[in-house]
Amino acid sequence: MKTRTTLIVTCTTVFLAQLGMSIYLPALPDIARDLGADASRVSWGLSVYLIGMALPMLLWGSLSQRLGRKPVLLAALGLYGLGNLALPLGTTVEAFLTLRLIQGIGASGISVMARVLIRDSFSGDLLAKALSWISIAFVIALGIGQYLGSLIQAAFGWEAIFYGLGAVSLAMAAAVSRARFPVLVQAGNGQSAWGIYGHILRQRAFLLPALAGGLGYGVIVAFNTAAPLILQESFHWSPIEYGLLGWPVSAAYLLGALVVNAFVLRTGQRRMMGWGIALVLGGSTTMLAGSLTLSSIALLFWLPYCFAVFGQSLNYPISLSLANEGSPVAGAYAMALSGFLHQLMASVIGAMASLLLSQQAWPLAALCAVLGTAAMLCVRFMPPRVA
Questions:
Q1: Does 187 score more than 80 pLDDT?
Q2: 44, 117, 293, 378: least CB-packed within 10 angstroms?
Q3: Residue 188: pLDDT above 70?
Q4: What is the pLDDT of residues 307-320, one digit of tens each?
């Protein structure tokens, strides 16, 4: 598969998987009404989807190494597509949540395989540049998902959202089935998959950049968990005003991904990663200082966060690239393990943020500053790059 084809396939599949998280959210009240269920129960669909994405990541990576990239990506697209097509046929909230779990499992395979295919085709600074395209696809889906879902719902009903996702996913699977994939590279010298993952995890050259990426991601997760209550209760924002915050946040992430794509070959990965983490830490500490000294000014809460998001969008693709480079085992394992670690860290950090139970901004800002400091330490103690 040519590198251009690889980028098209991976960006399109990541776009589809990300849409599955957010495109249906405007239809939640209608879904709850048609299922005769509480909206609060139907809202569990997002959490169930994320659980489905996180749990099988290591398994997808192992399967892709043993069976090949193409059959595993086809299986993930098929599972995701069929889960979407089946969901409108369910008549209970239990069926809805079960099918959301199946969708998440399929999206997990799509996410892992997108990174693995990029890793198969690129290396070094070019790998970070290529991974930035995935970030661009991610943030575009994040920015337009709910708006697109609201348009489809208004025109055709909420069922059309899932039918559309399912049909496009199966069409994508048909296109992938015609593509030629790289020859499978065997890795691990006969070790079990869990032995290989354990071996990779013990390497500082893998673990520290992977942790730096996950800690920066944790800042975004923590803010998204706690900020709605803070902004709507402490700063008296309306739901519409909070929704509008998504535009500058998405713009910051998109800008960072474009900067990586345009400049990483000139600056080098480590220097740009250092800049990114410095922005994450600087944005978080500015947010903390503003929350402690001028706590009534919302601008000092959300604007520094946008700088932190910009920094994380510099950091994240490079952290994946350096972690892959630091893995002692070739193949899909490092990318799958990175994704699993990041989802696990996001779950833990999200739980910590939900326990803050404060309408004040400073506890959240303090948590973000701690995460940024830890990420900076990971970068500081990363072993030298092997030429």
A1: no
A2: 293
A3: no
A4: 999 999 999 999 99
**In this predicted structure, which of 58-67, 197-206, 330-339 has the lowest mean pLDDT?**
330-339
Contact by Cβ (8 Å): 320, 336? no
pLDDT score at 59: 93
Rounded Cα distance, 7 and 121, in Å: 9
* AA identity, residue 255: L
3-183: which CATH topology?
A: Growth Hormone; Chain: A; (1.20.1250)
Q: pTM for this one?
A: 0.81
Nearest Cα residue to 248 out of 315, 313, 303: 303
Measured at the CA of 49, the angle between CA 303 and CA 255, to 5 degrees, comes to 30
pLDDT higher than 90, residue 303: yes
What is the sign, positive or negative, of the torsion defined by CA atoms of 97, 99, 100, 104?
positive
**pLDDT tens track for 123-153:** 888 888 888 888 888 878 877 777 788 888 8
Please, is 230 exposed, middle or buried when counting C-beta atoms within 10 Å of its C-beta (0-12, 13-18, 19+)? buried
Candidates 102, 107, 100; CA nearest to 41 is 100
Written as six digits, the tokens of 141 are: 């889906």
Give how far Cα 321 sits from Cα of 40, 104, 315, 335, Å.
39, 24, 10, 9
CA-to-CA separations, 174 to 2, 13, 75, 78, in angstroms, rounded: 18, 13, 11, 10
Using alpha carbons only, give the angle 259, 223, 284 rounded to the nearest 5 degrees: 65
Give yes or no on whether 3-183 and 196-380 have one common fold: yes
CA distances from 42 to 33, 46, 145, 163, 315 (A): 10, 9, 18, 18, 34
Closest CA to 44 of 14, 24, 16, 59: 24
Q: Where are the domains of the chain?
A: 3-183, 196-380
Query: Does CATH place domain 196-380 in 1.20.1250.20?
Result: yes
